[in-house]
Amino acid sequence: MNKRSTLKSKCPEAEGWSCYTATPAESLELFEAARSKCPVAHSDEHDGFHMLLNWPDVRSAMSDYRTFSSEPQVLRPMLPRKPIPGLDMDPPRHKEWRAIYDEAIRRAKPEVMDPLIRGDIRRHIAAFIGRGECDIVAELCEPVPAETICHLMGIDEPDTVMEVRRTAIAMFAAMGDPEAFGKRQAEFGAVTVGEIHARRDAPRDDFLTYLADIEVEGRKLDDDDYVVLLAAFLGAGHHSTTSAMASLIYEVFSRPELRDQLKADSAKIPRAIEEVLRLHPPFFGFFRRTTKEVDVQGVDIGQGQDVYVGWAAANRDPNVFDAPSELHIDRPNLRHMSFGFGVHNCPGAPLARMELRILLEELLELIPDLRLAGDPPEYAFGGGDYAFIPELKVRFEPREKLG
Questions:
Q1: What CA–CA distance (Å, rounded) separates 137 from 386?
Q2: Which of 102, 132, 247, 380 is most buried as measured by Cβ atoms within 10 A of its Cβ?
């Protein structure tokens, strides 16, 4: 049981912080100010929690699941749902559930996924390339990762893919409201779990058929298991990649010299991706709960206390990254925390990197003159500590067809 945290730190500006009380930009400013005053900040939101903001502290906590537990849930406020398989669990239980994600990624072979992802990207670009302008988040960054996850699961019927996208977006948007979240989750489950039931009647060689038959912890999965499991796939593989895609487009195409450099030397694209992920992590962090009393840089954190492990803050630790708020693809250190660390590192990171690489390759080839239209975008929080660009208007010379 959580023991309410009442510690007052030396950085009072952090006392009212959560992703529901501040924007991502305000949060980054707060993290920087708090880090300069105290090693461990504190907020009284969500019944009180400590905040780890330095890279070494974040890495240490992510490495020590025996002290910093992911149970009962890694998001706040906690919601009336089953634990997210793997994410809300510690070893040894974590291992068996994590194997489900690993099986999905095992099926995401580059020779299979690359042409599918590339084809989806080209199809969406073809739909707007004749206009010379678009909201590239809505028309490219949002649909492509959802379609990729649907390919991975074995859902290819266009109307079903659209329903998966629609219900997933509504579900994650309601994460701050437990009652609304429950309703939206039921709608999402009606679409996705129905696909698993269909596989039992007509098996296919796909991931959903695999899910329909497996046993975990000595039992068959039930519908509630399927809902939270598939929601985790969409949350991790869809919304986070949408955010990363928008950030990548923003950072590269607002810098003509960087755009030209990457077009001339595609070998540098992976470094650009890692640096953008460091600067703009789709998730700002997750929560842990202490299993015993622990000392973090002289601050005593009692047993049963909630601790916010700040990935975004760690990614901008000036003691680890020179000029941490600036984008430099040639910096020697790209050790960001945007995919987590330790046993809870993101199993889908290779697939996300593949999607980002293909996206940038295609845009640099097909629309190299793409440029931002209007002011720089403002990031927002949506569905927990998920940070994203809601809209990104771009312009380019209209083309009759793909080049």
A1: 15
A2: 247
The architecture in CATH of the region 12-395 reads: Orthogonal Bundle (1.10)
Tokens of 116: 């599918």
Domain boundaries, given as residue ranges, for the chain? 12-395
Q: Which tens digit of pLDDT belongs to each residue from 116-161?
A: 999 999 999 999 999 999 999 999 999 999 999 999 999 989 999 9
Question: Side chain identity at 182, as an amino acid letter?
Answer: G
DSSP character string of 9-72: -S-GGGTT--TTTS-HHHHHHHHHHHHHH-SEEEE-GGG-EEEE-SHHHHHHHHH-TTTEE--S
DSSP letter (8 states) at residue 160: H
- Tell me what pLDDT residue 2 has: 56
Cβ contacts of 366-371, under 8 Å, gap ≥ 24? 366/122, 366/125, 366/129, 366/402, 366/403, 367/125, 367/129, 367/396, 367/399, 368/259, 368/263, 369/396, 369/397, 370/136, 370/249, 370/253, 370/394, 370/395, 370/396, 371/253, 371/254, 371/395, 371/396
pTM recorded for the entire structure:
0.94
Determine the Cα–Cα distance for residues 110 and 366; give it in Å rounded to an integer.
Answer: 22
